[in-house]
Amino acid sequence: MISFDEASAILREAAGPLEEVLVAIGEAAGLRLSRSVEARIDAPRFDVSAMDGYAVRNADLTGPLRIVGKSYAGSQAPRAMSKGEAVRIFTGAPVPEGADRVLVQEIVETRGDALEIVGEFGEARHIRAQGSDFREGETLLEAGARLGPRQLVAAAAADCAEIWAWRAPRVAFLATGDELVAPGTASDRPGALPDSITPALAEMARQYGATIVGSEVAPDDPERIEELAAQLLDRCDVLVTIGGASVGERDFASRSIEGGKFRTLFSRIAMRPGKPVWCAKRDGERFVLGLPGNPTSALVTARLFLAPLVTALAGGSYDEVLDWRELALAEDMPAPGPREHFGRGAFSKGKALPFANQQSGAQALLAKADLLLRQTGGSGGLSAGQSIQALDF
């Protein structure tokens, strides 16, 4: 067996961004930029009002003012202003040439085209200067940035209809086991178990930038597993198999898929849970990642291997999602045994609270687990208050 760090190093070396694609801004959510985004225009494009009110010349505040026009957002700027003139103006509208202040509408009164100041106006000019947000040619987003809602605002504001990004990795799932059935149908069949892990793994993959392109459940039949795997591999970059990766009498998945054009990267890791995890790669960027069948084991190992793999294929850094931090334990944690242990716990009052039940088949506690707690194999137990490595789960 190899260590978790050794397996991670192998997968890190094998994974890299997929091809670069030109994507419409409306279809780019979740992708990572392969090239930086530069502004095509100034923002604002000209001096604009920050308030609803009246554009005036500061030098004219002590004299009579006459309203000579209006300025709306999206319109062209009115003619240059002369002495004693005012222009009705709205938020985002261009400021007339010559105006250097906007009087908010709450401090003025109008009679016909006459404007009178009846309140205090203070130091604020209420004008957003041209280019005060950003200038044409300025880099707004660096290559590698993932396009979430805030980043999409910046890209669209830069006047970009399309952006260059790394293609999202396509991920498919193949769960194996005669006992597995679709959720909602297990109660109708004695001995059946709902496939509780595939929907969770699919959501995890999406969160790290994947597109889900398929999901199948196969019986413990090598020919059927091989048939479904081939169909899924035709349309995905990463095939995740669930179950069938151990040494049991009917564990067929790794034996049915690893052969042929795939090269085994690693199999069997000295970790708990996750000893039977394996990974193989075909020429190019096509992977098979084999996870254990127990839901907790599958979810833990997916967080440790699938999440960074998807991130790297999507154009990010493999290690950016393995951001371990030191936390104090809220309670004692027993010795891990000979293999490295990734226990489940929760972040509670600034500390790591380990769960008492660390069985790989436990599913109810997963809803409360938001930390993985890492213990070196062969180390001793830890007491409350001692430090432990923690990873957001």
TrEMBL record:
One of its GO terms (cellular component) is cytosol. Its EC number is 2.10.1.1. Its cofactor is Mg(2+). Pathway: Cofactor biosynthesis; molybdopterin biosynthesis. GO terms for biological process: Mo-molybdopterin cofactor biosynthetic process. It catalyses: adenylyl-molybdopterin + molybdate = Mo-molybdopterin + AMP + H(+). It holds the Pfam family MoCF_biosynth. The keyword Metal-binding applies. InterPro entries: MoaB/Mog-like_dom_sf, MoaB/Mog_dom, MoeA-like, MoeA_C_domain_IV, MoeA_C_domain_IV_sf, MoeA_linker/N, MoeA_linker/N_sf. One of its GO terms (molecular function) is metal ion binding. Catalyzes the insertion of molybdate into adenylated molybdopterin with the concomitant release of AMP. PANTHER family: GEPHYRIN, MOLYBDOPTERIN BIOSYNTHESIS PROTEIN. This is Molybdopterin molybdenumtransferase. It comes from Qipengyuania nanhaisediminis. The lineage of its organism: Bacteria, Pseudomonadati, Pseudomonadota, Alphaproteobacteria, Sphingomonadales.
